[in-house]
Amino acid sequence: MLRYFFCAILVAIPLFSANSQKKTPAVPTQEEWVEKLYNSLTPEERIAQLFMIAAYSNGNEQHVADIEKLIREKKIGGLIFMQGGPGRQAHLTNRYQQASRVPLMIGMDLEWGLSMRLDSTMGFPRQMALGAVQDDSLITAMGEEIARQMKLIGVHINFAPVADVNNNPNNPVIGTRSFGENKFIVASRTLAYMKGMQSRGVMAVAKHFPGHGDTDKDSHETLPVISHKKERIDDIESYPFRKLIQADIGGIMTAHLQVNDLDRNYPSSLSEKITTGYLRDELGFDSLVFTDALNMKAIADRYADGEAELLAFRAGSDVLLFSQNIDRGIERILEAVEKDDKLALQLERTVKRILRTKYQFGLHKSPRINPDNLDLRLNTPHAFALATELEEKSITVLRNRDDFLPVRQLDNQTFASVNFGDAGNFTSYLNRYTSFTSIDGSLPTDDLLNKLSTYNVVIAGIFPGQSEEALNEINKILNTIGKKSRVITCYFGNPYELEPLADLPGLLVAYSNSDNARLGVAQGIFGAIPLDAKLPVSVSVKLPAGTGLNTSSLNRLGYGIADAQGISSRTLEKIDELAREAVSIGATPGCQVLVAKGGKVVYSKNFGYYTYDSIKPVDENTIYDLASVTKVLASTQALMFLEERGLIDLDKKISVYLPELKGTNKENMILRDILTHQAGLWAYLPFYAQTMKDKEFLPDYYAPSATPVYSMKIADGLYAKPLVKDSVWHWVVESRLRPRKDHEPFDYKYSDMGYYMMQRMIERILNQSIADFMQQNFYDPMGMSSTGYKPLDRFPRDRIAPTEQDNFFRKSLITGMVHDQGAALFGGVAGHAGLFGTANDLAKNLQMLLNGGNYGGVRYLQRETVMNFTDQQYANNRRGLGWDKPLPGEWYGPTTEYASKQTFGHTGFTGTAIWVDPEFDLIYVFLANRIYPDAGNSKLLSKNIRTRIQEVIYQAIWDFRSTQEAY
């Protein structure tokens, strides 16, 4: 009995010293404990062991007193906790167990986890969603996790899984509680769930025997009738129960069903033919049988107080749930037992079976529940990660015409989202992959059609609450749009409602409207995660059970829970403190911080405001001036593109590609030396000063308003002649080099100057501006829709964080125009500065590099190119080609000392930083406008905020590893 379910109990052997005078009492064996306790009970108390009654941790003190009175006076067998909270329930369980002379079995109805009954707890997907999941091991893991949580609050029995084969779409009570309509799938999923729970010492109770799946009535309201022959019930309905019995499930709950071919006289829960004859004798079940709730109208409306309890006991049930009248139930059973020796023997067997179960739960040791920090111990990151994975794995692709999913091409297409119902943040999740225009689904049909018809791709979200009439109308709208555009329809809810949409060319179903489902669908559409689920029930002839198309991963950046990627989410929360410190001390008005690991964004938060007046808060769409990060994400990547195509040789002189440098002090500079900042160039030269005199703008260069001659905007109220770029280039060429000793190479000195030359070389070879080239070949195809030069050409000013109140050169607040003065004189497009973007966008680019040059199914760069440019080039110079690197063993390096030697990245004057660590599969992005309103603000640097945050990231990895080792 219960061979699979109960874990071995380890009994500590006391150690005795030579002087020991006392011996620890021996732990009684199971049979010793059962016999002693059984013999101490009166006949009424023995019968009371059969009863489990409802208890509510959100009940008032009178309710608590009533329960405690029943426990003390009747010696009831157990409690079924219903609604309430985990902490309150834990305290009440300790109180009730202390009041009971016979330990109480505690059960709950937790089909999808503690959230089914308790507030402030987490939940898992419903069973129909799990029926779509193709990996049973995930469902086993869910069972283990639910059991772990249950044991923390002292619950021994879960009235799950639902083993009903739901082959009637009109079933009013089972529906999404079932794993589906296929008996083999229901059997495999229920087995997986059961094994997970019972491996952790919680009893699984399968329900509702012999099968509630093919009913059109709710037994809470009336008595459903099953008209099938026994052969059909053997083949379909009881099949999952048969498999569970063979696997030693701990309990089975009988249903309130009129199964005429098995017993015409009594419902299955009260039928001896079904409970004893069929379940016990024919199927061989010898563990605990529970009735369904006896207060349900299917029973309560047909039987007098005490009668149903007696019939259920006589039928062979061990545990009677939700009796409407315990006193009368005990009386009726006692009367029958006193008159019938066979029933008396049955009572003894039943009570001893219950007591043995209590012993196997460890209740003979009178355990107490620790209620401290329950929230943290219940709602662990691991549990959330598992729930997220199950939700993602359940998303089912039903239609995918022309294999459009996952969406590969993001550039040269326009995207719109239209939502019908409560979409939550679905559109914002889509926007993480490319730019979407959101169209209101409640618009009149003609207006909706007119707006949507201009887009190449339309993602339609349909959310719960739609009537059949509404779904038919939505179907017409989407079919009309589909004649011109690609339409992907995402349905969030019960799949039985999908029939009106069955012919749509692109169709996905998620089985709930949870946040995880919405994010998972967005990830699936764009290939951040593969999808392989199968429909667990038939929607229509065109969409039968088992329908489901596989889509592949395109290695796009996903979004997940840190612990699932091997990094502690709780440790990462310390980043919040550092970011808030930065804002509170005035190191920056606000910032974005992003961490990705294993191809998933595991931390992405926004802090503070655009400015210190705290009016506009920073969000994930806030665009920042990236400053010198431009060097690597624009110029260096363009050079990587050129080098791997043989268009440049890094060991040749710059004058090979820019002949105008011949005869100058730049002629013999080697590209590799320029990119590693050891070509002898000065760090920075204030070219803008040569366009001014006595702090006034020279009219040869500037005018206060735009004209055909002064057409290049430098700042609000300041326009320049485009020819000023030629002047800047002339000053670059004529600039002196740093001093050095004769016959010695130049040492390392970080410099902007070389990137003026890099830009000129790149644009000459490509015959295209670096801005257009990068936008067309990198940013747009990767879905970096907020990244690029000159953001005011595409975005409203209020999306862009301001930089400096420039009182020396531009004499205005700089917002949406490059802060760097030299880049400003280049019209905002330069090799060393001028790029703007968001943390989310930059993470995509960095993930491409971490993937070895591949992203979204597109190869941007060769892996060898990425490795070459990001490797350290010289022993006495930490730099890669363009990329910065750690400085091992030095506190003043650009990264934490924990970063591996493979790490590469860059920082920017405005407060930005990007770092990639391939050894840890790690990305870190920090964006800020620390120079608002004064570029002299060095607190971000002096307080080492960016590096301290990076240290927390590595600490989170160590903490996760140590936790796993301890576990």
TrEMBL record:
MF-aspect GO terms: beta-N-acetylhexosaminidase activity
Span of domain Beta-lactamase-related: 576-934
Signal sequence extent: 1-17
Reactions this protein catalyses: Hydrolysis of terminal non-reducing N-acetyl-D-hexosamine residues in N-acetyl-beta-D-hexosaminides
Presence of the UniProt keyword NAD in the record: no
This protein's UniProt keywords: Glycosidase, Hydrolase, Signal
InterPro entries noted in UniProt: Beta-lactam-related (IPR001466), Beta-lactam/transpept-like (IPR012338), GH (IPR017853), Glyco_hydro_3_C_sf (IPR036881), Glyco_hydro_3_N (IPR001764), Glyco_hydro_3_N_sf (IPR036962), NagZ_Beta-hexosaminidase (IPR050226)
Domain of life: Bacteria
GO terms classed as biological process: carbohydrate metabolic process; peptidoglycan turnover
EC number: 3.2.1.52
Domain Glycoside hydrolase family 3 N-terminal span(s) in chain numbering: 44-356
Family: Belongs to the glycosyl hydrolase 3 family.
Protein name (record): beta-N-acetylhexosaminidase
The species this protein was found in: Fulvivirga sedimenti
